Amino acid sequence: MNPKRILIVDDESGFTQLVKLNLEQTGRFIVKEENDGEKAHATAREFRPDLILLDIVMPKIDGGDVAALIREDFELKKTPIVFLTALVTNKEASSNGLMGGFPFLAKPISLEKLIECIDKFC
Amino acid sequence: MRGRSRYKKQSLTIMPSPEKYSILLAEPDPAVAALWLKMIKRPSVSQLSVKHTAKTLDESLKILEGGAIDLLLLDPDLSDSKGGDALKRIRELFPDLPIVVLSGIDDDAAVSKILEGGAQDCLIKGRFDARTLIHSILSSIRLARAESSMARERDMFQMLLDNIPERIYFKDRQSRFVRVSKSLAWLFKQDDPQELVGKTDFNFFTLEHAQPAFHDEQEILTTGEAIVGKTEKETLADGSVEWSLTTKMPWVDQQGKIIGTFGISRDVTEIKTMDAALSAERHLIRSVIDNVPDRILLKDVKGRYMLVNSAHAKLLGLDDPSQALGKKLGDFLPATVVEQHTAEDEEILRSGMPMISHEELMENALGEKMWLSTTKVPLRDQEGKIVGIVVISRDISEQKKAREEVIEANRSLTEAVARLKKAHEEMHAIQLQLIEAEKMKSIGRLAAGVAHEVKNPLAIIDMGVTYLLQKPSSQDDETPQVLKEMGEAVKRADIVIKGLLDFSTPKKLDVQEEDLNTIIEQSLLLVRGEMKGSSYRVVKELHTDLPRLKVDRLKIGQVFVNLLTNAIHAMPEGGTLTVRTSTRQHAGVGENIGDSRTESFRIGRTLVVAEVEDEGTGIPSDKLSKLFDPFFTTKTTGQGTGLGLSVSKSIIDLHGGTIEIKNRPEGGAKATITLEV
After folding, report:
1. Within this chain, do residues B410 and B361 fall inside the same structural domain, yes or no?
2. Labelling B192: which of B96, B276, B321, B430 has CA 20 to 30 A away?
3. Range B104-111 average pLDDT
C-alpha cells in the first residue's frame, strides 16, 4: 500500500515538523510541511496531497481563504481538507461538527486521533 | 268675598199704650181751673186724671220735678210768669213733656208762636168743648211720645254715623250721596258729612274703583240683590290705596220701591296688607324651595306627601308639585325603588333618629339612575310628637362620577408607575446583562488570543512528547514516566484553556419548557462516575408537582453537573448528597435583599427552588465571597479549573434566576438555585 501524502499547512514550524516526524515514523504517510499560508496553494499543486491539514489562524492569510483557493482549483478540489486549530471550545470539539463546511481537529491533538481522522477522509 | 242675600223689609209700629195719664193743671184762676177739671172728668174718659193743680210757675216746676206727670195743661199767664216765659222755661227743663196750652188770645200768630215754642197743641179759651180738650190731651201725649221716640232713633242713628269707624252711606238712584257717616267724610278729607251730599264716588275715587262700584250699585237697583262682604280696592284721588270689606244693599221705601242703595264698608287695609305680606312670604318660601336644585319634601307618618318641591316633582315625573300631594312614592316609582325608602322612613319614625347625608342609588320616573345624598329628619308637632318626615336630597351623580374618575385615574397611574417600575427593573437587568456581555466579550477576545497562543505551544509539546516516547533512544527507566507526566500536563492545560473559552464565548440560550426534576435526574446520572471509590448516599426530595420552566436544558444540566460534582468532591470519604426541589410564592424582599436579582422577581409570582446539599467541611468564610470569581477554586490543583461556578452563575443569570451558596449550620454546604416560573 502506497503511503498517504499529507500536506500540513501551519505557521508553527515546530508543530509541522513534529507532526511530520510522528506521522512518517509510522511508515504510512509522506508529509510535506508548508509554514507560509500564501504558498500553500502552490505547494499543494506541486505536492498533490491525498489530504491537507490546514491551520486557520496564520499571518498574511487565514486557513479559510487557503481552503477557498484550493477548492476553486479544478485539480485540487477533491482533495480532503481538515482544519487543525487552537480556537475550538470543548463543545465544538465534542460535536463532530463542521467548520465552514470542513471537518476540524482541535489542537493539541493526540497522534492517535490525528491518524484516525486522516484514515477517515482518505 | 262677595255674597248676595234677599233684602227683607222691616216694618216699625208704635203700639198704643193702655196706661192712665196723670195731668198737671197750671191755671191761676180757680174758677177756670174748676171748669176744666169738670170737662176732663167725664165718665167715658177714665184714662185721664188731673193729679195736681198749680197757680204759679214755681209750683208747677216743683210738681213736675216730682215726676209722674204725663201732660201739662198750661195757661201761659201764670201769676209769677207772663207771656211765653212759662212755656219756654218748662220746655227747657222737660223737653219730652207733652204740653197743651190753653190760651186766652185768639190770634193765629200767637198760636203759631206757642206751637213753635214747643207745645203739642194750643186751644183758645171759650172756643173748645170737653171732647175737643180730651182729644187734644190724648193726641198731644201720643204726639210727644212719637216725637221723643223719633228723636231717640234719630240720635242713635246720628251717633252711629258720627262715631262708628265703619263707613256708612246712603245713595240715590244716581249713586249720589244722600247721607254719609263721619268716617266716610274723613276718608274724603271732609269734616262735615253734608259736604258729600249730592256728590258721587267719581268725585273722590279714581275710575278704577268708582266705575265698578257704580256698576255694582246699578246692578243692585236693577236686581234688588245685596252685595255682601265684598273686598274692594279703593284708590283715592290722591293715589293712596285702601282695601275695604263692603256690603251694599238696596234702599227700599215704604212702598217697597228701590230708591237708592246704602252700604257699610270697613277699612281692611291693615288685614289685607298683613295677608299680602303673609302671602308674599309664603310665595317667597315656595319660590326658594322650588328653585333650589335639591329635593325637598315632607311626608306624613303614612308616607303621603304633604309638600313636594319642583325638583322632587321632576324626579317623580310630574310637572306640577301639587299633583304629588296626598300620594305616595309608590304611586310614581317601581316597588324595588320604594322598598328601601319605606324601610328607612319606618326606622326614622320608630327611632326618631335622623339619617344624615346618606348616599344611595336612586331611580327616577324615567328609570334613570342617579346618586343622591339624602338627609331625613323626623317632623314633630308642637308637643314633640312625630307627625312625619322632612327629606332633603341632593343629586351627587356628578361628584360621584368625578370621584370614581379620580380613583380610576389613580389606579391607572399606579398601574403605569408599576409598569414603569417593571420596565425600569427590566432595563436595569438588561443593563447588567449588557455590562456582563460586554465584559464577557472582552474576556472572550482575550481568552481566544490566549487560547491560540497557548494551544499552539501545547500542541507542539504534545507532539514532541509523542515523538520522544516512540524513540528507542529514550527507553531508559525514567524518561517514559517524565514524558507521560508532560503529556498529562498538556492535557490539563488544554482543559483550562477550553474552559476559559467556554466561559467567555457569548452564549445564546436554547429555551424550551422543561421539567427541572428530569434535568436533575439526568445530571445525577452524569456524575455517577465521580462517586466511585467511596460510599455515597443520594437523597432526592423532588417536588412531585413542579411547574414546568422555560430553560436551556443543556445549560441548566451543566449547572447541576457542576454543583453535584462540587458536592461529591467536598466529601472525598463519602456521605449523604441531598437534592431538593420546591416551589414558593415570592412574598417580597427576602433574605437576599441586597441582591438585585432577587428584587427583580415579581411579588406574587411562583418561584421554583432547587437545593444541593453536602456533608463536607463547608467553605471557609473568607472564601464565600469569591466563589463565583473565574479561576477561583478551593480544590487541589488538577481537580478543578475554577471556572465551574463562574460558568454556572452566568448561566443562571441568563435565565433571570439566582444562585447562592452557603454553609449549613449542621455542616457542609448548600447551593440554592431560584428560578421564576
Report:
1. no
2. B96
3. 87
Query: pLDDT for B228-269, tens place per residue?
Result: 999 888 888 788 888 889 999 999 999 999 999 999 999 888
Q: How far is B465 from chain A (nearest CA, A)?
A: 9
DSSP letter, residue B3: B
Looking at the complex, does the CB of residue B448 fall below 8 Å from at least one CB of chain A? yes
Domain boundaries, position B413: 401-492
Here the contacts of B630-639 (C-beta below 8 Å, separation 24 or greater) are: B630/B443, B630/B500, B630/B503, B635/B569, B638/B492, B639/B569
**Domains, chain A, with CATH or none:** 4-121 (3.40.50.2300)
Q: Contact at 8 Å (CB) between B446 and B631?
A: no
Residue B347 sits in a domain whose CATH number is 3.30.450.20
Separation between Cα atoms, residue A19 and residue A117, nearest integer Å: 14
Half-sphere exposure of B428 (CA within 13 A, CB side): 13
Per-residue model confidence as pLDDT tens digits over B401-442: 898 899 999 999 999 998 888 888 888 877 776 776 677 667
> Which among A25, A87, A93 is the nearest to B448, CB-wise?
A87
Q: Which chain A residue shows the shortest CA-CA distance from B462?
A: A108
Shared domain for B443 and B553, answered yes or no, is no
* Domain C-terminal end among B462, B492, B522: B492
Residue of A6, A11, A15 to mutate, testing the B interface (most B Cβ within 10 Å of its Cβ): A15
CB of B24 closer than 8 Å to CB of B53: yes
Task: List the beta bridge partners of residue B210.
Answer: none
More confident residue, B615 or B653: B615
User: Which of chain A's residues have a Cβ under 8 Å away from the Cβ of B467?
Assistant: 18, 21-22, 25
Q: What band does B20 get if pLDDT is binned at 50, 70 and 90? A: confident
Q: Taking the alpha carbons of B600, B550, B658, B672 in that order, is the dihedral positive or negative?
A: positive
**B639 falls in which pLDDT band (50, 70, 90)?**
low
A25 touches chain B (CB under 8 A): yes
- Cross-chain CB nearest to A12 (options B456, B467, B491): B456
Beta carbons of A57 and B490 less than 8 Å apart: no
What is the C-alpha to C-alpha distance for residues B293 and B470, in angstroms, rounded to an integer?
Answer: 114
> What's the confidence (pLDDT) of residue B96?
87
The answer to whether the Cβ–Cβ distance between B460 and A14 falls below 8 Å is yes
Are B75 and B152 members of one domain?
A: yes
Q: For residue range B114-173, list pLDDT tens digits in order.
A: 999 889 999 998 888 888 888 999 999 999 889 888 988 999 999 999 999 999 999 999
Structural domain count of chain B: 5
B636 and B521 in a common domain:
yes
For range B461-465, the mean pLDDT: 89
Partners of B448 on chain A (C-beta within 8 Å) are 87
Min distance A74 CA to chain B CA atoms (Å): 32
What number is the average pLDDT over the span A42-46?
94
Interface membership of B484 toward A (CB under 8 Å): no
My answer on whether B40 and B154 are in the same domain is: yes
Whether residues B170 and B256 fall in one domain = yes
The answer to whether the CB atoms of A108 and B448 lie below 8 A apart is no
> Which of B489, B476, B466 minimizes the C-alpha distance to A21?
B466
At residue B674, the pLDDT reads 92
Query: What is this structure's pTM?
Result: 0.37
**Is A91 at the interface with chain B, CB within 8 A?**
yes
Collapse the DSSP code of B117 into the 3-class scheme (helix H, G, I; strand E, B; otherwise coil) and give the result.
Answer: coil
Predicted confidence band of residue B643 (pLDDT cuts 50, 70, 90): low
Q: Which of residues 27-56 of A touch B (CB under 8 A)?
A: none
Q: Which B residues in the span 68-87 are in contact with A, Cβ-Cβ below 8 Å?
A: none
Which CATH number do you get for residue B531?
3.30.565.10
Distance from CA of B501 to the nearest CA of A (A): 6
Contact A34, A7 (CB under 8 A): yes
Q: Do A14 and B501 touch (CB under 8 A)?
A: no
Whether chain B has a CB inside 8 Å of the CB on A111: the answer is yes
Task: Classify residue B455: in a domain, yes or no.
Answer: yes
From the list A22, A89, A93, the residue facing B467 with the nearest CB is A22
> If DSSP codes are grouped into helix, strand and coil, which group holds residue B388?
strand
